[in-house]
Specification:
Elements lengths: L16 E7 L3 E8 L4 E5 L5 E7 L1 E6 L2 E6 L3 E4 L5 E5 L3 E8 L4 H7 L3
Antiparallel strand pairs: 1-2, 2-9, 3-8, 4-7, 4-9, 5-6, 5-8
């Protein structure tokens, strides 16, 4: 059994914070903390992803079209689809990655 409390140790920093919550034989669960007005520039992944807005509100750009996502929204995205994020409010985002994907790749988006 894996256990993680997504609400523990919340600290909104001057950069987007990415934490591995846990991984299993199928996927990796990531927590992303974004302070209001922070962005993750356009990027894509070789694997499908699932994004859940646990708290807050973001603008989720998919192929140049902006989608407002709010607390409780869950979206899935196929592989190789360009997307970007902007936090309209302090936000807690749960990102589900394929097992073969890496946390380092997600962190690398911040350096683009």
């Amino acid at each position: 059994m894996n256990r993680y409390n997504i609400l523990e140790d919340l600290e909104y920093k001057d950069t987007v914070t990415i934490s591995l919550m846990f991984e299993n034989e199928l996927s990796k669960e990531i927590r992303i903390l974004m302070k209001e007005n922070q962005i993750m520039k356009e990027h894509k992944t070789a694997f499908p992803i699932t994004v859940e807005i646990f708290e807050g509100e973001i603008e989720f750009g998919v192929e140049k079209q902006i989608h407002k996502l709010v607390k409780g929204d869950i979206v899935s995205l196929s592989a190789n689809i360009p997307h970007d994020l902007k936090a309209n409010k302090n936000s807690i985002i749960r990102l589900t990655l394929a097992k073969k994907d890496s946390v380092a790749r997600v962190s690398g988006v911040l350096k683009l």
